[in-house]
Amino acid sequence: FAGLSLYFEDGHDDLDDFGFDDYGSECDGIRITAFLDAGQDNLTPLGRLEKYAFSENVFNRQIVARGLLDVLREFSDNENDFISVMETVARMSEDGEPTVRAELMEQVPNIAMFLHESQPNFPAAFSRYLVPIVVRYLTDPNNQVRKTSQAALLVLLEQGLICKGDMETKVCPVLLDLTEPSSDDDYKIEAVAIMCKLVTMLSKDTVEHLLLLRFCELCSDARLFQVRKVCAANFGEFCSIVGQDATEKLLMSKFFDLCSDSLWGIRKACAECFMIVSNSTSPGVRRTKLSPLFISLISDQSRWVRQAAFQSLGRFISTFANPSSTGLYFKEDGTLLEVPRCPFDRLGLGFDSGGALWLALCCRDSPLSIESSMLQERNNNPPTNNEETEQTDENFNSFHYWRPPLPDISEELEMLKDQVPLQNQTAGIKEGEKEEMVVLEDGEMAGLKPVTSSQIQKVLDCLQPHMDDPDAQGEDDCTTFKINCQIQQQTSVLSEFKYLNHSSYSCPPPPSPLQNVIPQQLLDQYLSMTDPARAQTVDTEIAKHCAFSLPGVALTLGQQNWHCLKDTYETLATDVQWKVRRTLAFSIHELAVILGDQLTAADLVPIFNGFLKDLDEVRIGVLKHLYDFLKLLHAEKRREYLYQLQEFMVTDNSRNWRFRYELAEQLILIIELYSHYDVYDYLRQIALTLCSDKVSEVRWISYKLVVEILQKMYACGAHDLGLNFINELIVRFCHCPKWVGRQAFAFICQAIVEEDCMPMDQFAQHLLPSLLSLSSDPVANVRVLVAKALRQSVMEKGKDWVVAYSDELEETVMALQADKDRDVRFFASQDSNMALMDTAALI
After folding, report:
1. CA distance linking residue 149 with residue 140, whole number of Å
2. Count of beta carbons in the 10 Å neighbourhood of residue 335
3. For the segment 563-590, what is each residue's pLDDT rounded down to a tens digit?
């Protein structure tokens, strides 16, 4: 009520006009709707609302606008009164004072939610009265009112409070008018921004029919670079909404124009949304058109554009990922799993490529389900004789159905096989052509017809589209096998001529094995991100971006191409910047899933071991996912880390208690990976040490770890080890000279009962007497937990065996109920089904 004091300072002392006279001088207790209360004017509440809503005093009108939600609540019981209030609101929206209009618009989202909750009584009130106000304020001459209206509109859409009809007939038409070429520049820029923000909240049909063509026009706005920049920044959202067909037919040409815009800020925005655009295109467009376009951005003259492009490079590469080839996919919760085998997978129809790292992929129905059902029927009803097997339909062939047949290269092969004396062939060869001759090993050219590399390339070009054809994944296993046999048979002859005799003809050496999953230029640029020169000319943190996206790139390339990334990964793992190593440490468990157990053991375990000895900032990365990594190792390799777990107790800064807390949480998970003997020998001591930590948060999570260890002992039938552990707990905690240790014992006892860690008769025999002895502890906080343990757990879950200790238990509980401490009496008297107080509050 800052304005209230100003109003009084101006000499206004007619408090009764506001209806505030009954509330004293304490402003905090004043209701905004106090003006509705009966006063000396003998007006009804609606009359008083009318009076102040259209008062000559601006402050009166502001107060009414600010209190509209409460006003509606007070009149919501009577439909006629409610409609009168809404009509008053509609009239108030035409107030000439901008502050009043802004105050009213700030209340619209809250009013809309109230109307939504009261929809059975007022189904059309929001659409009839408030939506027109929001739309009209989008063109308000006052900047503050427009901004408030835009913010309110976004909130209404996010909450789903504006129906599709209102969006299509009321909101979108106004945005289209404001984005006309003749529109005012300021209005146009604001309208483009709000339109781009709305697109993700609208349906595909609405965007396509109403906004898509206008967006394409705005992308080419030659006069206002601000408009083009907004379009570039939101280009990916439009692509993801309208889908592949519209993206390739309408939006792709605009994207090319924006990527070559004269302003570097627009090109930078394109680089930042490149991955989303790529996900909205087909694999062919992604490879043949977007890849060269991205290379142009990564080589841009502007450092800021190059920086954004390199930051997006790994994400763009990940759009080439295909679960059918990588064998992995992401669930919605982010878990990386192997692709499940299903009938569609057998045909290679289960997945689309693109964005595998960033999107959760799953099997989908295939449009070729007819063919799959035919194959299934054929498998279920095999032919009965060979003649029937040999019969084929000339009009239909499953191989032809999927793709064109392999070209006939028999003539070329015959040409290659045709061997004639070398001396008859070299006579007419020019000096410049000798470098292209292909010969066999050790220069054995006698009796062979020389073949130039261009001739071999011609043959390979005929085969290459069929060897890497992405549309060829539809064949069944049998057809695929036949195709591979044909390709291998046709290329086997070529392999004889592919060896280059370097000593005789000085030909360049054969290139190292390359991958064919992504365009090689993209991979080369990605691998160059570890080059120190890049950090100087592009981005000082470029290596960190490389490390961040490496799991996605590895997933895209697959296990078979890990050799392309291995050196880069090792370089990043030894980078001088700890942030780079930290990034790898946080994702090494995901990379282990991608690479499999053999590559993990060979290439990741050494790096993992190095991270264990690194700075705490790096070690925390492997610690947070220690369980996830260890479970991927073979048992014998995993057991080696039992000796190193103790090292996590030592940190660079002893005050870093969250490190020890994380260790306790991980140990709770790790217990299942080891035998009860290993748990007892190695994890037990770590748990007991953590239970004595100086920080209470670490101690309490460690008590849960102790309970899990005890449960492991008894679940495996190791009762002797369990009893030894119990005796150790009694000595260490029940007889602890510090009250926190004795309190911990009571908590552990309660958790043991609740988690059914051991037979209750064993608990009664070995733990209950010690627990009862703490009922007379001098510290009230200890007695509180004893009361809780007895009343909420022991007496509730131990009904069958508690009879033997009923007298002692009854005496203990009665003593606690008469305790001098109020909290002890409360918990000792509390029924087990009552709400429990948070244990941490008692510490």
Report:
1. 9
2. 12
3. 999 999 999 999 999 999 999 999 999 9
Angle at which helix 58-66 crosses helix 2-9, to 10 degrees, equals 160
What is the fold, at CATH topology level, of the domain defined by 172-302?
Answer: Leucine-rich Repeat Variant (1.25.10)
Q: Please indicate, yes or no, whether the overall pTM of this predicted structure exceeds 0.85.
A: no
The DSSP output letter for 430 is -
Chain centroid offset of residue 688 CA: 37
> How many residues does this entry show for the chain?
843
Distance, CA of 792 to CA of 780 (rounded, Å)? 18
What backbone phi and psi angles, to 5 degrees, belong to 335?
A: -75, 135
Q: Which residues contact 639 (CB under 8 A, 6 or more apart)?
A: 674, 678
Assigned token pair, 771: 């627990």
462 has pLDDT over 50: yes
Class of domain 1-161: mainly alpha
pLDDT of residue 607 exceeding 50, the answer is yes
Contact 567, 576 (CB under 8 A): no
Cα separation, 219 vs 228, whole angstroms: 5
Measured CA to CA, the distance from residue 367 to residue 471 in angstroms comes to 13
- Per-residue pLDDT, 223: 85
Q: 707-746: per-residue pLDDT in tens?
A: 999 999 999 999 999 999 999 999 999 999 999 999 999 9
Q: Supply the Cα-derived Rg of the chain in whole angstroms.
A: 38
CA nearest to 790, candidates 818, 759, 769, 766: 769
What integer pLDDT is reported at residue 483 of this predicted model?
45
Question: Quick check: 811 pLDDT over 70?
Answer: yes
Packing angle of the helix pair 542-557, 520-527 (nearest 10 deg) = 140
